[in-house]
Amino acid sequence: MKKLLMATVAAGLLTLGLTPVHAEYLEEHRGGTMRLVARSAAGTVDPHINYTLQYWQIYQGMYDGLIAFKKAAGAEGFEKVPDIAEAMPEVTNDGKTYTFRIRKGIMFSNGQELGVKDVVASFQRIFKVSSPTAGGFYSVIVGADACLAEPATCTLEGGVIGDEAAGTVTINLTRPDAEFFDKLALPHAAILPADTPASDVGTAPIPGTGAYYISAYDPNTGMTMSRNPHFKVWSEDAQPDGYPDVIQYDFGLTDEAQVTAVQNGEADWMFDQPPTDRLGEIGTTYKDEVYITPLTAWWYAPMNTNIPPFDNVLARQAVNFALDRNTLVNLFGGPVLASPVCQVLPPGFPGHEPYCPYTVDPGTAWSAPDLEKARALVQESGTAGQTVTIIAEDTTVSKAIGTYMQSVLTDIGYVAEVKPISPNIQFTYIQNTNNNVQISITQWYQDYPAASDFLNILFGCSSFTPGSDSSINIAGFCDPEIQAKMDEAMLLGVSDPAAANAMWVEIDRMVTDKAPMAALFTPKRIDFVSKRVGNFQFNSQFYWMVSQSWVQ
Amino acid sequence: MIYAVLQRLGQMVFVMVGISLLVFLIFFGTPGVDPAARIAGRNASPEVLEAVRISFGFDQPFYIQYLTMMKKIFITGDLTSFVNRGWEVVPAVLDTIPVTLSLVLGAAVLWIIFSLIIGVLAAAYRDTWIDKILMILGLIGISMPVYWLGEVMNLVTQSRYHDTWLFSWVPPLGYKPLSEDPKGWFLTLVIPWFTLSILYIGLYGRVLRASITEALQEDYIRTARAKGLSETRILLRHALRTSLISFVTLFGLDFGALVGGSALLTEVVFGLQGVGKLTFDALQNLDLPIIMTTVLYASFFVVVANAIVDVVYILLDPRVRTA
After folding, report:
1. Which of A37, A205, B52, B197, by CA, is between 20 and 30 Å from B307?
2. For chain A, which residues make up each domain, given as ranges?
3. What is the rounded average pLDDT for all residues in chain A?
């Protein structure tokens, strides 16, 4: 807690120093229409329901939670700052009670003033609309169980208590939660007007408190974001003013056409990743308009720890030893676009300490595959000669990785085949134990910067639901010893984040050693912008901060 | 006459019920498509999954789900998307029809004009070098897949030669409504029209040449020659007219299918938000309500186009009338 306070103070000082520059820039570059393009829309615009990076990125300028991730470049974007709350809350009752003082004078884009009742209603709404993370992230609130069972009549009694007179909202948890601030800063906990319908609004945008609001939306053609006429800056860190007057997000161009549109200056930024055949020209002729940033994400191959051959830890380790990560990186587009990895937590993430046991010289970094060791392990495990089916996505990269893995598995003694299936189905298909998937290729992108978001979600016992299409622990990995450690680390995180992260380092190693998956590589993101875009800043949490760049 | 119309209607209903049932069963029969899991989002807890399942009615028996969906499409018209919840599907499909019609009608005009010219020229000069060149060009046109041709056209007109005098007039990709911006509408569609029609120009040109050549062997052509008519007149008034029957049959089928959404690849490549692109996007994220509606819409058009072709047949060929 102390550390958090210090960070806030430091952030405040920094802001004071930066503000005049920002103000000057604002005067000089304010205005214009910024045009973004994407292949397609990303579903409902309801911030309590939408669970895509594509919309989370643009929600940043439109919605606010009690807490926000700091609008700053780089890893500073992982810091949490008070947003609708006046200050970071007082935590009492052994970390189970949070009291937020609600900032006065914040207006929604429809002209209503934000009040305590809106905050209380918004927390109830998370459950009423069955937000995807209602059961995962917010079930820690007192009264959440009843709300999950009966969403329609959710009151969160005793969990979220508003005090109109004092202007405060008190949140009670059933147990201390070190990641509660992170969860509050996600769009799923955005504060919306109390009279927002208690069902998914779909294509009818909800008024927000940010600098922009959605003035038009058609999933088939595009979205228009205009300045919120009632917006006044209350915190540069939480919700700064933006440069463009209008942000127009158009849907429908193929990735090829998006590249061309950005090159011609018809669009200012493309959401989708440029196709590999255009990377050459982007990297040379347009190199001043490209930004490449490593992501806190990974590509990995989960191995089903409940069916042969990968119910045998030696077999799983063998795969890890055999994979040539350099080849995988090249299949993804080369070292500029990805870096090899052996462990769960991505570089730059809390709890990450470089660790790689699966290489010729085990240590901190991967150097080369050890095929002999892999073959020996397969023999030792007694699984040699078994049939293994790799389930890949039917996309160029995933299919190429699948084919490569097939050759490696064959090399170390299995009879391997690869089955690419449509990317629309693959992610849910591999989760369902009924489909008996042995090994697959998939990706995971962080929700928020906490080690448990990778380790506990992907390899925790509670994320494993046999027979369901929603069972994100694809490996079906459940190790009592590791689970106990993870529970301990999550509890420790409340009082001592540093000590908890040290524990996560160890857990990361334990999981990596048990190899319920083969880590493949850490991807990087390419942002390709038009010539006129200035002040490009990449925030580690929500990516490029759209409204903080200018177009004139 | 009434019997014929009723028969057509009966056929249409039969086809549409069959297709919709098939779409429905394939959708729910595919592993990994549990719509509740997809709607609930990644890593949804079992409780949330259950709540979504109930709120969307996925816990109901299949036939009830099917009937509810049909009711929402045909009677109440308030079927909403699984992905963009609250987005009404029927108006969404209706909104996209003008885009597809603009694309397909323009392309149809081009391919009728050019294939007539090519077919007649090749037949008139058959076995000369003109014929050979035209037929080879036709074959090339047929062989180029439209998505490849479209991307190459884009690369040439939007990127590589965009700044030259030749293509500087080409506007950015996307559709502009005819009512708001007629010039923009025309300019954005020129390249898509040509791209879509090239295949059909080649195909129809070759078909027409073959049937004219065949018609020229007929007795009535010899009679016409004996009467002393000019070769041009014989070709255009006598041989061409009977040859148009196969041309019209083909046209009816292709046009119906294209308006129904087969111009999908062209629409996707050129960023035109038509029926085809709507279907494509729905397939990308397995949005059953939209897939269902566009498939029904497409089958409707194919059946209607077939009926129209039958009528045109009668007008062109007296033999069909008596039979």
Report:
1. B197
2. 1-30, 31-243+534-551, 297-525
3. 91
